[in-house]
Here is the input.
Amino acid sequence: MARRKNRLHSDRQASTGQEMPSSGSVFTSRASFAILLASICGLAFFLRLLHVLQTFEVPTLVRLLGDARGYVDWAVRISDGDWYGTETFYQAPLYPYFLAVLIKIFGPSITVIRLVQMVLGVAGVGLVGLAGRKLFSERVGLIAAFMLAAYPPAIYYDGIIQKAALATFLLCALMASCAYLQSESRWWHAVMAGVSLGLLVLTRENALLWTPLIPIWILLGIGETSRHRWMLVGCYAGGIALILLPVAARNASLGGEWSPTTFQAGPNFYIGNNLDATGIYVPLVPGHETPMYERADAQRLAEQAVGRELSAREVSKFWMSRAWQEIRQSPGRWLQLMIAKTFMVFNRYEVPDVESMYIFRDYSFPLKLSRIWHFGILCPLAIWGLIATGEDWRRLWLHYLLLLTMIAAVVGFFILGRYRNPIAILLIPFAAAGAVELFLRVRERRWRSTGIAAAVLLLSLIGCNISVHEERSLQASCYMNMGISASKAGDLATGIELLQRAIAEFPEMAEGYVNLGRAYMLNRQPDLAAKCFLQALLLDSRLVGVHFQLGEALEYSGDRQGAIEQYQRALAVDPSNVRAAESLERLH
Here is the structure.
């Protein structure tokens, strides 16, 4: 066992000065590591650039939808001069401000944004390599960097307009800062840990749960004098306060309430834990999945229930309280939901939001690597790595806590692939350490311990690769979104084809028929549009606005009486529908 431990940590000891045969050999080792790491970063750059070039004309990148559209619109407003804003933050603000800076410098170019995110992704690969080297060995660091360089979900998230790209880079920076802080205990490493975590909190709110862990780890886990440890805690606190205090003060100046991040925890917790929750995102109002509705719907519904105007914090508390009420109504069902969400977190499948990696894979060669290198392979390797390095827990316990806290945060709300991605990044160094340890055991013919490793890997592979999602419906939703984007961009032929593909993938999807009907209306085919709207209402009568759209299709088809009936139903559902009232008046 001593020989195994020495093999795994030999490079780390050389880099930290615990074992220094000669200055020349250390210099050669560091130079070789730097060259190899730079080569891996070059590979990461090539794969990401190829991906950007091959997905240049994907419809959802030509015409943005959902959060991507909301982020860019927000960024444009900021770049036009609205840097302070007029209300408290509902969504994490750093990514829109990051986009605003790029738009201010380069103009509103989606391609430029993707290229900058690509560079951040490459930098993250280098930082993971450095973190792996400090935590384990040079060999582990290089393998960790290679794993991230070629990891298709990371390539995908670096190439779409989502905050996952920025969050990945900041998480890699945090991991490297903590690894260097542990091995060298310099004050600037503590400052960088605080700054990187503060920026990460402004990108991914659940990282706020990590803020007390690092000072506890500094005080209990770093082998320095008490005075030096407290100095490091102060440097960390100063770094994180530098980032979060101005945001908290800004929120207080606009909303009267201090918050270092946002006020959407309550609605998100309700979405993930109400009586009808499925473990994935479902909007509070059907059909209102976009940022322009999320905040307004959460506030409107809460104020209707309470009967008065509510502040942003009160809205969040309302939804949090309602979620716990529904959990108490059916604790057994909630426990089953939590178990299901736990399986979802560890599953191979990247749950899509508006866009799907598996559809982008049709365009991108680098994403085709996802057939052999995906979370369902990474996670078993990491589980084995956690076991294989378990004897070193006194040095690694911060990373265990970061991992467990992030898993709990994702399970506690709802599952999306981009929300789960930080877990993958945290697992990569352990997966690399597990791969190195497995190689050593095979090379040294330690067959008994190799058999244990094989058993762990096999069981983990089975658990991580069973089907737990309704993948057809999720895939169909993403085809639908692409069809919407193509139609809005004026490419109706492509839009109709993609929407038809969505319905073929999952015929029970009512919204697919609604959007296909809209595309037919734009294509001047009202008869086909009316059939689609009728089918949508048969599948889901709760859909907002479909009666009015069906009335329009019937009117243009020449069915005057049918149109009147649908306009009347539209007004019955929503008396404030001015367009339906005007249409009725015109037909009468």
